[in-house]
Amino acid sequence: MSSASRSTGGGLFAIGYTLLFFTFLFGPLIIMVVTAFNSSSFPRILPWECFTTDWFGALIRDQRLMSGLWTSVILGIGVVAIAVPLGLAGALALSEVSPRLRPALYGILIIPILVPGVVLGISTIVFWGGVGRAFGSGYSGIFYNGMFLTLAGQVTFIAAYAMLVFMARLQRFDPTLTEAALDLGATPGQAFRRILLPFLGPAIASAAFMALLASFENYNTTVFTILSGNTFTTALASKVRLGTDPSLSALAVIIIAVTLIGAMINEAHSRRQELLRSGRASKSRLYANPVTRWLTHPAGVGIVLIAAAAALVHAGSQHDSRACQADLIEQKRQVQERLLEEQRQRIEEQRRLQQQTAPAAPAGPSANPSPFGGAFNPGTIAPGTAPAPAAPAPPPAPSANPSPFGDAFNPGSLAPGASGPPPALPPPEPPPSANPSPFGGAFDPGTLRPNP
Question: Domain range holding 110?
Answer without folding.
Answer: 64-245
